[in-house]
UniProtKB/TrEMBL annotation:
Listed InterPro entries: C45_proenzyme-like, Peptidase_C45, Peptidase_C45_hydrolase
Pfam families (alphabetical): AAT
Organism of provenance: Billgrantia desiderata
Protein name: Peptidase C45 acyl-coenzyme A--6-aminopenicillanic acid acyl-transferase
Residue stretches making up the Peptidase C45 hydrolase domain: 117-349
Length: 361
């Protein structure tokens, strides 16, 4: 049965990091508490541990966060206070990738596209359907920091989004047993979204580093007198691998493929990752004419592609997969960085044209 969605409401947060967190926790108290229950089940399914054991693992990440992004700890304390949960519960939510993705990765298909002087970013976020109703859209106006929009999970400080400086980022999960020094993935994403420029955003991957492997698709609306730019960053505790645009396009799914990565790591991709990447490349390089007009609807069509189903870009419930591997598309995002506009479809992009559109002035 097709499930129809109304556009998600936009949650407005402002002030200091602690004030932003307290508002986030208070407004989304029920979703955060439900998210803790969901990840309690997911951690058991994926790595065979209970929530209390996951909290113990999360404790190890507090010191690296305090060193690399101390203000975000204030925000997580605020979230905990507002939601009526313990700080360690919120830290555990924000370190869920480091705790769970050693055994299982989500899906996610992402691309950057520069055409007609416009820099676009887009992706599907594929994950367990347990988290579908815990997706939130946050517009954050921090003191002395760029305003930003982040689409992610309640109780988590960042994921996919853009800021008023024209910096945007997408995420692809990577399954790997590597975990070292650096910021947890979702905290690094938030630090990128608070960056004033592309150089500062790149420094999160190359200087702060990210403690476990993932792919960050990073783009900027403007560089000097030139148009936008994009780069794929296969982040990890070492120097990230980089993927440069080809004909203005960067694509990525859930396996590592950057050439000449300075510090290579081992990944364990799902069987559908390579076919989805090939399909994205075909749609964008071969089937999208260079002079074709682009808008959000056209790019949502790409994200709605079902070739190769059930292992397609737009992912639906697949009963033939083991229960712990059943990933579905939970939201789709298209961003026009030049116009500082993010458009979101909650659920599968093929099932509804209703969307939330947010523009940062």
């Amino acid at each position: 049965m097709t499930r129809r969605f109304r556009p998600l409401p936009l949650t407005e947060l402002s002030g200091s990091h602690h004030e932003i967190g307290a508002q986030h926790g208070r407004i989304h108290r029920q979703l955060i508490q439900r998210g803790i229950e969901v990840y309690g089940r997911l951690f058991h399914d994926f790595v065979g541990i209970r929530w209390e054991q996951a909290r113990d693992r999360a404790c190890h990440f507090e010191a690296p966060v305090a060193q690399g992004f101390p203000a975000i700890l204030e925000e997580m304390n605020g979230i905990a206070w507002g939601a009526g949960v313990d700080f360690l519960d919120v830290l555990t939510l924000n370190c869920r990738s480091e705790i769970a993705l050693t055994q299982a990765s989500g899906g996610c298909s992402a691309f950057a596209l520069q055409r007609h002087g416009q820099q676009w970013l887009a992706q599907n976020w594929d994950w367990r359907s347990d988290q579908l109703d815990n997706v939130v859209a946050l517009r954050i106006r921090g003191n002395d920091r760029p305003a930003l929009v982040s689409i992610g999970e309640a109780g988590m400080v960042g994921k996919v989004g853009l800021n008023e400086r024209g910096i945007g980022v997408c995420l692809n999960a990577i399954r790997s047993q590597t975990c070292g020094s650096g910021l947890p993935i979702h905290i690094a994403l938030r630090k990128i979204l608070e960056s004033d420029d592309m150089q500062s955003a790149l420094a999160v991957a190359s200087h702060d580093r990210v403690c476990s492997p993932a792919h960050f698709l990073l783009a900027s609306a403007q560089v000097g007198n030139e148009g936008g730019q994009a780069v794929g960053l296969e982040v990890q505790p070492g120097e990230p691998g980089r993927i440069a645009p080809r004909n203005g396009i960067v694509t990525h799914t859930n396996h590592l493929y950057a050439d000449n990565t300075p510090c290579p790591v081992q990944d364990y991709p799902r069987i559908d990752s390579q076919p989805r990447l090939c399909r994205l490349d075909a749609l964008l390089h071969d089937e999208l004419p260079p002079d074709a007009p682009l808008d959000e609807a056209r790019l949502f069509d790409v994200l709605s592609d079902h070739q190769g189903a059930p292992l397609s870009i737009c992912r639906h419930f697949n009963p033939d997969q083991p229960a712990e591997e059943r990933m579905e598309t939970l939201f789709s995002v298209v961003m026009n960085l030049n116009e500082r506009r993010l458009t979101l479809r909650h659920g599968k992009p093929c099932e509804s044209e209703d969307s939330l559109s947010v523009t940062l002035n």
